[in-house]
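If you are new to this repository, start here. Below is one unmodified record pulled from the training split, so you can see the exact layout before writing a loader.
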Amino acid sequence: MVNSKHSCNSLLIVLSGPSGVGKDAVLNKMREKPDNYHFTVTATTREIREGETAGQDYIFLSRDQFEKLVAIEGFMEWSEVYGNLYGVPKSQVIEALHKEKNVIAKIDVQGARKIKDLAPDAVFIFLSPPSMESLQKRLTQRMTESPEALAIRLETAKLEMMESEWFHYTVVNEDDMVDETVNRIEQIVEDELSLNRTRTYFTDT
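And here is the target side for that same chain:
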């Protein structure tokens, strides 16, 4: 990773939460508006799912391609989740911040902790389901995992929910209320911008 220290008035917003909570649905709704956002695209080694678009939903890489980027420190953070590698390229974040855009990065809870050390002034938002029963229903309806994989995701989600306490904000994504969730996140962004302070996102290591 290229060591750097970047200060600006733009926001780096880290959106995290358990698998199946609705992060993609929320971000897709936010993309419909012409606000000054840059949405990071995560690189992953997992297989593309039906309905996904390469380069838009994820950057799909082979494990060899991913590991080569790791070797040259090309990720802001990366981790292995359910046997697949995920990482956010740091270059796109720095470029967007230089353009004074507010950057929204969708990161798993494990990765969010790494970014907290790297970008001390980022805004961390935890997206929570209204209940574990609701989360199980959403994951079941998605039908992308075997029963065994689904059980692992639910157990992981319980642990991730406990991590929400160190996030700056927790937003509950109620069933069929994506618009309300987006409005709450946008209000958080507006409140943070109103502080009008310079933020440091990347510290030298």
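Two things worth knowing about this chain: The chain has one domain: 8-202. The CA atoms of residues 33 and 79 lie 30 Å apart.
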